[in-house]
Write a structure and sequence with these properties.
- By secondary structure, this protein is of the alpha+beta class.
- 24% of the residues lie in helices and 20% in strands.
- The strands form two sheets. A six-stranded mixed sheet has the order 1-5-6-4-3-2, with helices on one face. A three-stranded antiparallel sheet has the order 7-8-9, covered by helices on one side.
Length: 203
Amino acid sequence: IKQEEPSGISIPTFDSSELDPYRHPINHSRQFKEDGDFLIETEEKEVYISDGKLVKAWLNMGVRGDDPVTDFQVLRFLKQLSKLASIRPPFLPEIFEFGIATKSSSVYLVSAFIDGLTWSDYQCADFEAKLSLIHSLVSAVEQLHHLGVSHGDIHPGNVMIESATNSLFIIDIPDFNQAGEEQKNHAYSPEYIDTCSALERDI
């Protein structure tokens, strides 16, 4: 019986050199100094405003010799950032810089800060304006899916209407979770939330 048992499961290795193009010899907090208080500050993540831009940093990530699974998740995230930065969808905050800050051992993202109101706080002038806004949101989600990208956690707090232009933006995409878990919310997802995909949660 013992001889028939599998000797072990082979786990594919990850070549960490694939992350090298994204490595930059900077400390994110020195390169992008905060304008004021942190918006979010935990042991795993920092979010703040720097020179009018939004800076997100995921701490203790991208270090050489990290767990291969974590490295793969970081690479997938950075590739998605690269894709969105090159396409520049008008309904997502513009991405300015991103990568691995080697001096602070962090993965960072610098994007446009959307100054406006969330979907739940925004008041439409009339019924036609409300229909136009709904159309903009549906169109944005459809275009996002056409690009092969799903949000998976769309809710009123993740949809912003910019004050200066009344333009609609979907925020918090892409986002990174160090545990490899997708962001979900029960209020705006199907009942089978635990088994549905990010795309299914979007629609």
